[in-house]
């Protein structure tokens, strides 16, 4: 039986230590994700860490450190596909980026333990936990600071509601009013909103908009014949 011939106790114990370390460190990272009810929780994070450790440890056992480097690169790309599965887009908002990044870091922890770099794996785990917990109060504090419209890079859209018959004239008037106010458009699109209701959406090129000026432009656009409603909105999702 080939297993009896190839089995070596000390290398096997080394693998046990590597995989056990990946399991423990992955559990620490995953417990925080599970507590916050994220898409990828405890089990997923542990499996990512242990799987990465197993692949790297296998390469180390079979071909040495040189082959392990190649396996690590494959682990990194493979986790990228897995992380994409937890990212969801809801309208202008994107959810799951932090969870995907945490899975990526869990794979890094597993790769460290699989390469017998346990101290480095513990260090990476510490920084991952610190990023997900200790930085949270700082993030909340920053989010409470009012956004400076002049200093922030945001996407601004002017939206007019009209009907099919008035669409060409309203579209032309929208572009003219914005260019007159020195807010040239990057894109103008139409969106159907039920029977005989169409929205004309103009995306502005400028990333620094004066609210009062844009309010005045919208007020003038509301008086254009055929315009039922006019408004503008901003988004910093990009």
UniProtKB/TrEMBL annotation:
Ion transport recorded as keyword: no
Occurrences of domain MgtC-like C-terminal (ranges): 156-232
UniProt subcellular location: Cell inner membrane; Cell membrane
Superkingdom of the organism of origin: Bacteria
UniProt keyword annotation of Protein biosynthesis present: no
Keywords: Cell inner membrane, Cell membrane, Membrane, Transmembrane, Transmembrane helix
Membrane topology of this protein: Multi-pass membrane protein
Membrane-crossing segments per the record: 12-31, 40-59, 71-88
Name used for this protein in its record: Protein MgtC
Native species: Bosea rubneri
